Hints:
This protein is α/β, with parallel strands linked by helices. It has a single domain, classed as Conserved hypothetical protein from pyrococcus furiosus pfu- 392566-001, ParB domain (Alpha-Beta Complex), CATH 3.90.1530.10. The chain is 38% helix and 23% strand. The protein has four helices and six strands, in the order αβαββαββαβ. The protein has helices at residues 12-44, 53-57, 100-112, 133-140; strands at residues 51-52, 66-74, 78-81, 118-123, 126-131, 146-154. It has a six-stranded mixed beta sheet with strand order 1-3-5-4-6-2.
Amino acid sequence: MNSFKGFESVSWNSLDVINVQVATDKFHRLNRQARLAKFWHRLTGRSGTLVAYEQMHAQTKGITSLDRGVKVIPLESIVGSVGRAADYDRQFRPLNPALENRWINVHVLSERSGWEPITVRKIGDLYFVEDGHHRVSVARHSGWDYIEAQVYESPL
């Protein structure tokens, strides 16, 4: 006997609807947490924002980045962004409500088929997302520890 009785009538579209609702709820919870944390950081004078790559890159004195290929990197080592530091907080919770639809789509895609590697810039032991901000956010808040990334390293 099938222990999943009743599931045979559930189509992929129905499962997608469920995944969209789960992703929507998660986005709203994370956005609320990020806005509250931003308020708290402002009150305490602490920084909870992502590090801007542009600030760190100035220390490399314009040395050309080296292509290190696709690597699996720890999500906790991603501390900043190339050009989008204001869209996420330090924990990669979305701050900007306009990110909702894309964030939800990326979340559903991760459940269904996965995605391509993100693109990061590396300085020292720190990584800065160039392409893949939504994927990093979804991965971090889905319990992942690592993510595939195309790495370009700027030596110090």
